[in-house]
Predict the structure.
Amino acid sequence: MEGRPVVILDAVRGPSPIHDIDPRLRILTAAAFSVLLATASGWTAPALGLVAAAGCCMLARMPLRALAPRMVAVNAFAALLVVTVPFEAALAHRLPWLAPDATSMLEGLLQALQVGLRANAVVLGLAPLVSTIETVTLGHALEQLGAPTKLTRLLIFTVRYTEVLHAESLRTLRAVRARAFQPRLDLHTLRTLGNLVGMLLVRAFDRSERVMAAMKCRGFAGRFPQFHERRIHRGDWVFAGCAIAFHAALLAERLW
Amino acid sequence: MHLAEGVLSAPVLATGAALTAGGVIVGLRGMRLEDVPRVAVMSSAFFVATFIHVPVGPFSVHLVLNGLMGLLLGWAAFPAILIALTLQAVVFGYGGLTVLGVNTFTMATGALACYFALRGWATSERPDRVLSAGALAGAGAVLVSGILGAAALAASGRQFYGEAALLLSGHAALMAVEALVTAAALRFLYRVRPETLRTAAAVSEGASHG
């Protein structure tokens, strides 16, 4: 029973106005957005960021199933902060055996909520900008932006092997389950998983040797051909203009 | 354990990014073109391992395997972990771009510590040493990464001490799981394909000679 190959590193598919924008431009925008918002303070910048991010998500037609897991993950972290920061804030001003006072706890709570808002804005903004770029295109775009060639090549190979290894791990897990394996917290489970990982590595190493040999046979000289030659079009300029204006406004708000 | 975006302070983020850049440069220098597929395989394995969950009471933890990566890759663990975390941030939105430096540094330093402390035992002829190296690497790498992650959080402000402590204590179960899985995986490699333990270390031999 092989079934359809499961592609796990799939980008969110278009078409959408965001998908049409040059990947390099999207990466740069995502970087600027992340840096400016992750280091922002106060409520205005994160709130503006969240609105802009939500707008981009709608433009990119991001499906909910792509957004939900990452929002859950970031909010789990934020929830822990909401629980712990108020107590820490209260303790900071008083001796630990005194009852925490309400004002500093409230202050801490607001602080934690601010961090949470910031985190949500960054994660939501990253999704439409970079999760819409196909991973191989991402490798090429990063290379054009000046990332070291070995690193981008590593990225492209990793994308490829991840699909292969994932399929293999699913196959192996299915095989052990067919033999009545049930994951529990015991030595047997952990040993089985260890063997599974070992087997995965052995097969993958062999595969990497074969792939390298095959590539050398075909005269691989360290570059991959690119199938989609991109030309900068009008949409790119419009997007770049909006992005620059937005980030300039964020900066102005901060310096004010 | 990734730290989330928007939490750490700017100096902590910048320090993490700079340290990671240094580690990645050292790692890439030691890699030849022929090593790229092998390192990519490890990077993928690290990535795929995060899909494998082990039940711990009502919760479940996923495998991390950075100790194993350290033993098999040495300095090349830096670029390999950077790529795996980048893909995780880009495709799934776990972690993020600004914390990429800090997250890579915490994970890769755990891996590298295992490499320097345990590579002798991991490539030993004696099965008991290989098994111990695996167990120590599995637990040690998680411990080092956990401590560094908690430190990054604590360095970002007094108000994060509570979360840092919670995060670190959450690593205890993961340490035990990683110790046993890494030991079993290393023993498997030792029995089935002992040369992988040595040829893989060769990637880093290149690194140490610049």
Q: What stands out?
A: Chain B touches chain A through 77 residues (CB under 8 Å).
